[in-house]
Amino acid sequence: MRIYLVAGELSGDILGAGLMQALKRRHPDAEFRGIGGPRMLAEGLHSLYPLETLSVMGLVEVLKHLPELIKVRRHLRRDALAWQPDAMIGIDAPDFNLGLERQLRVTGIPTAHYVSPSVWAWRQGRVKSIAQSVDAMLTFLPFEAAFYARHEVPVAFVGHPLADELPLVNDRQVARSALGLSPTAPLLALLPGSRSNEIRFLGPTFLDSVAWLRERIPNLQVIVPAASPARREELEALLADHPARDIVVLCDGESRQAMTAADAVLLASGTAALEAMLCHRPMVVAYKMASATHWLAKRMVKTDWISLPNLIAQETLVPELVQDAASHEAIGAALLEWLDDDAKRQAMEARFAALHATLQRGASERAAEAIDALITHGRLPPREESA
C-alpha cells in the first residue's frame, strides 16, 4: 500500500504519525511519501519538504509566500502522479491541501482530508468545493460529521485524539498534590490564552473577576498556567500591582494538570475549552477582541455557540461571554454558580465525562479503517457517524 500524506504543522505531524502507525498495523509493508515532521519521519515518511514549508499564518504572510506555495503544490502533484499512491490524505492545512486533493482526485487517486476546516461556522459555501476535492472527510466531532452528511459529502466521524489521550477517570486530589495546592480550598484554574493579544484583551478582566470572587469566597485559590515564557512575563506584569496577586499561583505549562485540579475553569474560547471538558471541569468561556474584528466576526460566523463543549452537545452547557458581555462582574457571577453549588458542579462533571466517552473512539485506528475501506471498496464503511 502506498499512501501520500501532506501535513502542514506540528499538530498535523502528530496526527499523521498516529495514522501511519495504525495503517502499518494493517499493512506492515505500507510506504508513505509527501510532507511531514519529525514524528512522521520516524514512522517512515519520505518527506519532500520540511514541515515548516506550509506553516504560514495571516493574510500578509500567505500572500508573500504564495508563489512558493504554488510551486510546492505543483511539485507535489507531479510527484504523486509519478508515484501513483493508493490514496492521498491531506492533514489539516485546508487552504493548501484541498487544492492538491482536488487536482489528484480528478486523475483517479482517492483522496481524504483529516481534520475538518470550520466550514460549519463560516464560509459554508466552501462545502461545494470540499465535495469536489475529497472522497472522504474524516472529522473529530459528531456535529461536523452531521454537517457533511447533510451536504452529501462522504464522512467518517473518527473521534478526537485528545479524548483518546486524556483518561475517562481523573483524580482532582492527585493533581492538586502535584501542583502543591490546598486539597480542600475552592480552586479556580484561569487560562487567558496562548497569544499575546489574548493576554492583553482578557488578562486584566480575568484578574478583576478573581478579585470580585475573592470578596465572596475568601479562601479561594487560583492557578494560572502560562502557555510560554513570554506569556508568563506578560502575566507577571499584570499581577505586579493587582489586588489578587497574593492568591494567584503561576505555573509553566501544566494546563491539563491545573484544570484537573480545579473546581471550575475560566478560559478563552479555543482548544482549551475542549481540554477542560475532557478534564470534566465546569467552565466559563469568555472572549474579547478588537472592535473591528468582533464586528466582522459577528457577520461571518454562522453558529449559535463559540465553545466546543456547547457545539458538541448542541446546547448551552457552559456560559459564553463575549466582548461587552465579558465584564468582570458577569464572569465572576457565572463562576460563582459553579463554585457555590456542589450538586450543579458534579452534574456537569458527569455530563462532560459522558461526552468524553462519545469522543474517545481510537481516532487513529478509525481513520485508518476509513482509509482502508476507501482504497479497498471505494467507499467508507457503514456507521452511525453521529453516534
UniProtKB/TrEMBL annotation:
Condensation of UDP-2,3-diacylglucosamine and 2,3-diacylglucosamine-1-phosphate to form lipid A disaccharide, a precursor of lipid A, a phosphorylated glycolipid that anchors the lipopolysaccharide to the outer membrane of the cell. It holds the Pfam family LpxB. It comes from the Bacteria. SUPFAM superfamilies: UDP-Glycosyltransferase/glycogen phosphorylase (SSF53756). The keyword Iron-sulfur does not apply. It catalyses: a lipid X + a UDP-2-N,3-O-bis[(3R)-3-hydroxyacyl]-alpha-D-glucosamine = a lipid A disaccharide + UDP + H(+). InterPro entries: Glyco_trans_19 (IPR003835). Keywords: Glycosyltransferase, Lipid A biosynthesis, Lipid biosynthesis, Lipid metabolism, Transferase. Its EC number is 2.4.1.182. Belongs to the LpxB family. This is Lipid-A-disaccharide synthase. Pathway: Bacterial outer membrane biogenesis; LPS lipid A biosynthesis. GO terms for molecular function: lipid-A-disaccharide synthase activity. It is an enzyme of class 2 (transferase).
